Amino acid sequence: MITPDFGVYIHWPFCAAKCPYCDFNSHVRHGGWDEALFLSAYLTELRETRARIGQRAVHSIFLGGGTPSLMQPTTVAAILDEVAKLWSVAPDAEITIEANPGSVEADRFAGYRAAGVNRVSIGVQALDDKDLRALGRIHSVAEALRAIDIARRTFDRISFDLIYARQGQTESAWRSELARALAIGVDHLSLYQLTIEPATAYEQLFKAGKLKIPDDDQAQALYAATQELTAAAGLPVYEISNHARPDQESRHNLLYWRYGEYAGIGPGAHGRLIVPDTSGRADAKDVRHATSTERNPELWVKRVSEHGHGRIEDDALTPAQCADEALLMGLRLTEGIDLHRLRTFAGTRPGDAVIQQLAASGFLERLSADRIRATPQGRMVLNELVRQLSLSLGPAA
Q1: Number of folded domains in the chain?
Q2: From CA 217, how far away is CA 215, in angstroms rounded?
Q3: Domain boundary at 255, 281, 296, which?
Q4: Are residues 109 and 29 in the same domain?
Q5: What is the domain extent for residue 228?
């Protein structure tokens, strides 16, 4: 198996408020939380993971959530120091923290930088105060712009998020808002189309007819406008929802999309770990495992205290499952997927006849003998595209 890049994902589960569109594993605790207790659990789970998989070179660390900028800088520093003790961290490793634009959190940026963070991703979501309130955000546009300004003076690299296809949003309004965002001059933007996720407040409103979002044709027009404006500004799409100047792509997220290896630490974190085979058999092979941890923060802490980790799922993946996941992730990228690498680590690849058929239909593009990518048309039906390629998987040539 090719040894992929390795990253560490730290999930901080707490938020100051739950946004009505959000289906992430985030929790509000009005009485606060015992940060020292949670820190101890993070360190324990990191140590157990190191004992399980052995030495790695860490290329990226991502502190996501939830709202990890609610953590004290000293907590972030302790986590990053522990990662560096357990594994070797590459000198140019990307270390990202997600942040909300509240003024108190923005003032902590200097502390995060001192802890070792070198990139921040800010959840702006809209540059319109009325729409921010509708999205359940507790910051204003002015606070968001202030946070971006502080971040630019503090970190080497910054990104911020926006959500489009919001209720009542016209193409003209989105073009104006996106142009304003691009004029800020950051090197990376994450631009997400609003979707109605199950078990969210927005789903209840949508089903009751109290929330109306752009239909498929309108959403497609907004997506096309997004591609046009970002490309013209020098931030072309490199993944369905992400745009960057050359060499400013999120390295941690590229690790996901290129089907690398990553440890998921914290409540509700997912991971993909290559676990050594300790059977001693001559034909033993290391196996990729899909892991996930207990979602409830307090139950996760309890599980870590009892078992040394919070895992509730730990499934060994078959070569076909690995190939299916790699296709789903890799075809999100503008660069596409390397079929030679797929053959090497999964022992399988899609059939040429299906690749040719999908290319002839305009859903797939063959960049070389060993690299394919989804066309813009194909990205609109990515799940079906992956389904057809997966059904054609065969033994490596």
Answers
A1: 2
A2: 6
A3: 255
A4: yes
A5: 6-255
CB atoms within 10 A of CB 239: 20
pTM metric for this prediction: 0.94
Tokens matching residue 249: 């792509």
- Looking at the structure, do residues 218 and 335 belong to the same domain, yes or no? no
**The length of the chain, given as a count of residues:** 397
- DSSP string across 240-297: TTEEESTT-S-HHHHHHHTT-EEEEESTT-EEEEEEPP-S--TT---EEEEEEE-SSH
Tens-place pLDDT, residues 13-69: 999 999 999 999 999 999 999 999 999 999 999 999 999 999 999 999 999 999 999
Domain of 333, CATH number, reads 1.10.10
Do 205 and 344 lie in one domain? The reply is no
207 & 347 share domain: no
Distance CA 366, CA 188 (A): 27
> What is the per-residue pLDDT for 36?
98
Provide the token pair at 268: 């509700």
DSSP string, 282-338: TT---EEEEEEE-SSHHHHHHHHHHHSS-EEEEEEPPHHHHHHHHHHHHTTBTT-EE
d(C-alpha 193, C-alpha 191), whole Å: 7
Element (H, E) at 154: helix 141-154
